[in-house]
């Protein structure tokens, strides 16, 4: 029954997207700062393609802020059935599939961990114990939330490159959960965070991170024929916040109102917020 619900939700979500793509709504959404940003705007990607056709680096100006690999992948949008619109609908279709699969993995993990810990529960907590039937609809619910979520639909219709970023993030998460299983590495409560096993896990994680970052940067470097122009236009652009176009975030407003001689300090403080909570949250929920 849950599988039927997932199919119906997916079909409904795709139908909504296909129908709305035929209207003038997408063109209007592409101009809305609530949906697109200087990093994710499709018209900026098209400007990058135009520069490449003229044998000019797409990062020579201040328009394109997508990575070289994303730019290469997005170029395939012109070669898929139904063009760019069909390309973004396909991205959202695969996003739905990955969301469903990740939710299914989480559901199975939840029941499995509960069965392991069940012997420690009080007999009075029997009514609070989850059953497979109670969580069987979780993947369908997650898929449905994405399929009919207005903001998800608007992001797709605006052809925001955030759709691709979401897909890649989900694919990486699913890969680690399913294939490598790094997120399933758990230690007994009696073991220290500084035990040999824990330190080995830390080193493995850092090593994999550095390997993939170096690998991706190397491919990007070769793709641009030995140029590193993309580093400032992508990562530097995000870190230094030079574009203060209004959007749903708070950076643009804060830095518009701030005196310039405080800028460097507050850029560091704001960017630090993205990582400062990582360690305590990891320790808390590990």
Task: Describe the 3D structure.
The structure is a single chain. Helix content is about 65%, strand content about 0%. The longest helix has about 35 residues, at about 85-115. It has helices spanning about 1-20, 25-30, 40-55, 70-75, 85-115, 130-135, 140-150, 150-155, 160-180, 195-225, 230-240, 250-255, 265-270, 280-285. The protein is built from 14 helices and no strands. α1 runs antiparallel to α5 (about 85-115) and α5 runs antiparallel to α7 (about 140-150). The relative contact order is 0.12. The chain has a domain at about 1-190. The two termini are about 35 Å apart. It is mainly α.
Short note summarizing the structure:
The protein is mainly alpha-helical and 286 residues long. It is 65% helix and 0% strand. It has a domain at 1-190.
Describe how the helices and strands are arranged.
Elements: H1 2-21, H2 25-29, H3 42-53, H4 68-74, H5 83-117, H6 132-135, H7 138-148, H8 150-157, H9 162-180, H10 196-223, H11 229-240, H12 251-257, H13 263-272, H14 278-285
Helix pairs in contact: 1-5, 1-7, 5-7, 5-9
